[in-house]
Fold this sequence. Notes:
By secondary structure, this protein is mostly helical. It is 77% helix and 0% strand. Helix 2 packs antiparallel against helix 4, helix 5 (82-101) runs antiparallel to helix 6 and helix 6 (105-126) runs antiparallel to helix 8. It is globular, with a radius of gyration of 19 Å. The two termini are 35 Å apart.
Amino acid sequence: MSTESDITPSTADRHHPLLKLALELGPLMIFFFANLRGQWLVETFPALSELGGPLFVATGLFMAATIISLIVSKIVLGHLPIMPFVSGIVVVIFGSLSIWLQNETFIKMKPTIVNALFGVALLGGLAFSKSLLGYVFNAAFQLDAEGWRKLTIRWGIFFLFLAVLNEVVWRNFSDATWVAFKVWGTMPITIIFTLAQMPLVLKHSINLETDGEK
C-alpha cells in the first residue's frame, strides 16, 4: 500500500480531478443523507436496526463509503490520498467505537481529532522545513517554496479553527444541527477560505513545463 509521496502530481490525479473530488466528498454526503433518512433506511433494510439509531446507521454507512472510496482511489488513481487516508482511519476507529458502545461522542469528535491532527502536522512540519501541504494539493497547483510555506501556515491555522468550531457545534446543538453543519456549514466555509487563498497561489505559482525546458 502506498500513499502520495511526491509533491509532483501524478498523471492519474491530473486526468481524474472530478473523480478525486467525488471520492473525497461522497462519503460525507452519504453520512448526511443517511442521518436525514435514517428511519426510512431502517424500515427498508431492517438489518440496519442492529446498528442503533439514525446517527449510528449513518455512521456505519459513512464507514463503508469511506472504505470503498479508498479502495477506488487505490485502483483508479494508483495511490491513497493522504488526507482521505488519515481521515478514513479515524472514521473507522471512532465510528466502530461509537456503534459498539452506542456512544455518539466518538463520531462527533472525529472532525475535531482529524482537523487538529492536520493543523498540528502542517504547522509542526514547518519546524523541520517541510511544507506538507504540497502533498495534499499536489494535483491542483505547484508553488515555489515561499508560497508553500505561507499557504501551509494559513491552512494549519484554519484546520485548528475547524477543530474548535466542531467542538462548539456538537457540544451546544442537536445531532441534526451538527450533521447539517458538518456538510452544509464546514464545506462552504472551506470553499470560501480556499478561494481567499487564490491571490497567494497565483503570486507564487510556478510552471513545471516552462521550468523543465530551462
